[in-house]
Design a protein that fits this description.
It is built from 13 helices and 12 strands. By secondary structure, it is of the alpha/beta class. It binds adenosine monophosphate (AMP) and manganese (II) ion (MN) (2 copies).
């Protein structure tokens, strides 16, 4: 690992103008990793810019440093000599930002998805890391001085990708790193307040509608629910409003696989998959054209109506559950 980090450091040291790109439908880790890496490179005297090709949820904008992230339009016509893609398992994940890559292929990929396709020239993907921002922190240590702003920004990705330090991906190394970031001035309570306590009344009403759709199958091992475009439209919301809803399904006792379908924009369905049993949802998502982690993954469909998307994914999940526990399913 140290060798690979050294190679990435050497490649970045030789760069002058660096573009750092995160994925569409950005989460805390994509935001944290892209903004923090761009700011670190600026501290090393480089010209560095960060791009997320999508709207950034407003609650992330409260975190200092996030404001450096720009959209695709602002970066057209800027010619980086080096490009880095972070927290993305495939080129598709950066959507329209792919057009900003001069060679069509990123020079460096920094990621932690087991489903990573190795789409960069230099690929550093380590699924043992619970967040890409931890990889960026390792890259920074002993190379770039970290102040409390950078520590806070890096802690954002680590906290959000670990469900605030409660997922199975959390080990002693994760908590040590989090402790170091807190010692440097990262404010965990501030991140939790910004990210977890921002629900509007309309979003709460959307949750109520989604709960009305919850269906259990396979003796309660599979729970799924949906948010339709009509529900979102009637409340004046978009797909970001259903962020976190899949957690409500996973919280059900006895559930092993939880699935949330969000139809937005109309004509597209985003599928969020969560597992708390033996089913590897990254593998399940990969079969459906997506990817992710063993316990949190996703995929998207374009042009497939919501009922068909539900049928396709739930059938695949039921088959995965049956493969996972054939004896208990018979009994
Ligand atoms: P989400 O359910 O949208 O929060 O996504 C959970 C995880 O699944 C993310 O952290 C991504 O790693 C991955 N993921 C979500 N959507 C996709 C997709 N369309 N393609 C590949 N990976 C995805
Ligand atoms: Mn992510
Ligand atoms: Mn991540």
């Amino acid at each position: 690992m140290d060798d690979r980090l050294a190679r990435v450091r050497a490649r970045l040291s030789a760069a002058q103008k660096v573009l750092v790109v995160g994925h569409v439908r950005p989460d805390g880790d994509a935001i944290s990793s892209s903004a923090a890496l761009a700011l670190m490179l600026r501290r090393l005297g480089k010209e560095a810019r960060a791009c997320i090709p999508d709207r950034i949820p407003c609650y992330f904008r409260e975190i200092p440093g996030v404001e450096v992230i720009e959209g695709v339009d602002a970066l057209r016509g800027w010619h980086p000599d080096t490009t880095v893609v972070v927290d993305s398992g495939s080129l598709e994940r950066i959507g329209p930002a792919a057009e900003l890559l001069p060679t069509g292929k990123p020079d460096i990929v920094l990621d932690h998805h087991a489903t990573n396709t190795g789409f960069g020239v230099l690929n550093l993907c380590d699924p043992s890391y619970p967040a890409t921002s931890l990889l960026i922190y390792r890259l920074a240590k002993g190379w770039v001085p970290l102040d409390r702003h950078l520590a806070h920004l890096l802690l954002l990705g680590l906290a959000t990708d670990t469900g605030f330090f409660k997922y199975a991906s959390v080990d002693a190394r994760t908590l040590h790193a989090a402790g170091e970031l807190v010692a440097l001035g990262g404010d965990l309570a501030g991140i939790a307040a910004a990210v977890l306590e921002h629900r509007s009344l309309a979003e709460l009403k959307l949750l109520q509608k989604m709960l009305g759709t919850v269906t259990l199958e396979a003796e309660g091992k599979l729970a799924w629910g949906y948010v339709s475009a009509d529900m979102l439209r009637s409340l004046g919301l978009d797909q970001q409003a259903s962020e976190g809803f899949v957690g409500e399904l996973r919280n059900l006792r006895g559930v092993e696989v939880a699935i949330l379908f969000t139809e937005w924009p109309p004509g597209e369905v985003h599928v969020s998959l969560r597992s708390k049993g033996g089913v590897d949802v990254a593998e399940l998502a990969a079969r459906l054209g997506g990817g992710g982690h063993p316990r949190a993954a996703g995929c998207s469909f374009r042009g497939l109506p919501l009922p068909q998307a539900i049928a396709r994914v739930t059938q695949a999940a039921l088959a995965a559950l049956a493969r996972e526990s054939p004896r208990s399913r018979q009994g």
